[in-house]
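Worked problem 6 (solution included).
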Amino acid sequence: MRKEIIFIHGGGDGAYEADQKLVASLQQALGTDYTVRYPQMPNEGNPDYMLWKGHIHREIAALQGEGILVGHSVGGYILVKYLSQEPLPDKLIKGICLIAPPYPGGDEQWQFEGFSLPDGFGYKLPFNARIFLYHSPDDQTVPFAHMRLYATHIPGAIVRETAGGHQLNNDVSVVANDIMSL
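Solution. The predicted structure is:
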């Protein structure tokens, strides 16, 4: 059986299309033993947790076996929020890969109504999942310091400093290598 990955794209106008390049890079690096599912989230220009969580829940529920979750930017933040406060379908999540997720209140530009995580969120994530954080110091969209905030709150997270800005130069081979190690 092919291993399944769900990739949740970032937010903002054109985010789904922009992140297709990341998905293509991931699928190419992983090869035919993996299937990367890439659902389009509603209202990408103005992401809303309440709208996205139902889609994420259905995607996880549809996994045929163990799953690996990847979230880019706002998609990573929403994935963390979902996993830390919603009951999961009866599925084993083997890995969680978070690429440049913004941290709520991480700086003045990332403070919005409803943009928050529950207290102790890092301890509420699936206990059996290995968690990876990826961020580039030259990210012009989400400050690099946000990765350290996540790392502080997620015990045991594996931190990877990458290159290539917010989109990692559309090369997520480092993510693929970690997925293949699971």
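Discussion: Helices lie at 15-30, 49-61, 74-85, 145-153, 173-181.
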